[in-house]
Amino acid sequence: MIEAIWMTPYVLLWSRWLLDSYCHWTGHELIEREEGLESQASRLFRAAIVVVSHGTEEDPLLNYGNQTALDLWETTWQQFVTTPSRLTAETAERDERQRMLETVEAQGFFEAYRGVRVTMSGRRFLIENAQVWTVLDPGGARIGQAATFSRWTWL
């Protein structure tokens, strides 16, 4: 694990926006948020669920993956956050993934997503019951999309 990646200013801020946006769309908290931002960012990074996100570039780059995500995708933080998010899905799955992301763009939230993903080393796994949401800044501007899931099966 990268030592205290959640303590960098960018990750602290992005963690807040991930958590606030999830609550905005669902009415529920993704993780317990009783303590301050540093504790929340640490808890999010160390959570047993997968949490990933990307920005709003034309070909969006991943910009956050908690430790569970990094382990699942068999990668490092540095490699993960420089990867186009479309590359997390196999070529055959990318059109379906894109349609789902367009639904998220229009509606803000998508529940019970299911799809095949591929690790950096090429291993395939099926995710189930993923929740995908639009990440908003404090002013309500759309600044990315995020996903969380806790169930996957190696294929």
Structural features, described:
By secondary structure, the chain is of the alpha+beta class. The chain has one domain: Beta-Lactamase, CATH 3.30.450. It is built from five helices and six strands. The chain has helices at residues 9-26, 37-46, 67-72, 77-80, 94-107, and strands at residues 50-54, 62-65, 109-118, 124-136, 142-149, 151-154. Strands 1, 2, 3, 4, 5 and 6 form a six-stranded antiparallel sheet that branches. Strand 4 (124-136) and strand 5 form a beta hairpin. The radius of gyration is 14 Å and the shape is globular.
Which helices and strands occur, and which strands form pairs?
Blueprint: H1 9-26, H2 37-46, E1 50-54, E2 62-65, H3 67-72, H4 77-80, H5 94-107, E3 109-118, E4 124-136, E5 142-149, E6 151-154
Antiparallel strand pairs: 1-2, 1-5, 3-4, 4-5, 4-6
Helix pairs in contact: 1-2
Which key features would you list for this structure?
155 residues; 28% strand; Beta-Lactamase; six-stranded antiparallel β-sheet; alpha+beta; globular
Brief account:
This protein has 155 residues and is an alpha+beta fold. It has helices at 9-26, 37-46, 67-72, 77-80, 94-107; strands spanning 50-54, 62-65, 109-118, 124-136, 142-149, 151-154.
The residue ranges in which pLDDT falls below 50 over 5 or more consecutive positions are none
Looking at how many chains there are and whether they match, the oligomeric state comes to: single chain
- Please give the domain count: 1
The H-level CATH homologous superfamily, spelled out, is PAS domain
How much strand content do the residues show? 25-35%
CATH class: Alpha Beta
Morphology: globular
State Rg. Answer: 14 Å
